[in-house]
Q: What sequence folds into this?
């Protein structure tokens, strides 16, 4: 007994025998817009950094990063040639964000009070270095610098230079004594940064068990610095 086929009004025609099944028409994605590509890169770098900070460079794999992010390896490799390049880019991006407040140090200056200015600058330095992100970045830089010396130079150099550049200008303008040489100013900058960055260095090595009273610490160190700098 043959079955009658009723073709309802508006219904799609049946496929011919042997024809490929019909598929839903997909919208072509094409290349992402520049803002979309930028957002994708930021998401990838932040996610990769979490892996590197948690496991270290050696124990982190590209498979683990792509799998947890739900991104194809092809997408990652189209942006970064290998794990080393991804690590460098992730670290650089995090350092840029971490050091952003240091770019506005001039806004902290009190034109009538050098001590107040140095206290504000020192507080910015200590809170930046002692932030959870700061401590983790310093630790992974210390851990991986033996394998990649350039990241140690970049991290230290950029962070140090942001503060040092402002302090050189500040000391040249505000410290009394017209006979100071550039070498004298550089020595004062180094002395100030070494006095202030102590707690962060201890925390980076896992030795800062006691919480730091930043305000008290900074005020004592600034007074100590000025007692020596103004006496020379």
A:
């Amino acid at each position: 007994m043959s079955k009658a086929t009723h073709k309802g009004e508006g219904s799609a025609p049946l496929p011919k025998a042997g024809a490929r099944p019909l598929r839903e028409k997909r919208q072509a994605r094409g290349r992402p817009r520049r803002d979309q590509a930028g957002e994708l890169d930021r998401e990838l770098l932040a996610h990769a950094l979490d892996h590197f900070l948690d496991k270290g460079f050696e124990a982190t794999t590209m498979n683990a990063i792509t799998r947890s992010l739900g991104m194809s390896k092809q997408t990652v490799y189209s942006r970064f040639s290998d794990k080393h390049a991804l690590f460098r880019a992730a670290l650089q991006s995090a350092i840029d964000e971490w050091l952003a407040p240091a770019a506005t140090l001039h806004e902290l200056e009190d034109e009538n009070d050098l001590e107040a200015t140095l206290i504000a600058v020192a507080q910015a330095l200590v809170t930046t270095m002692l932030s959870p992100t700061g401590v983790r970045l310093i630790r992974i830089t210390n851990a991986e610098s033996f394998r990649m010396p350039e990241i140690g130079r970049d991290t230290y150099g950029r962070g140090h230079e942001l503060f040092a550049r402002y302090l050189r200008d500040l000391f040249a303008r505000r410290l009394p004594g017209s006979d100071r040489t550039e070498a004298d100013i550089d020595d004062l900058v180094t002395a100030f940064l070494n006095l202030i960055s102590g707690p962060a260095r201890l925390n980076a090595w896992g030795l800062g068990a006691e919480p730091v009273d930043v305000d008290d610490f900074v005020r004592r160190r600034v007074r100590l610095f000025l007692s020596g700098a103004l006496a020379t």
In short: Residues 139 and 214 are 20 Å apart (CA to CA). The chain is about 65% helix and 0% strand. The two ends are 114 Å apart (CA to CA).
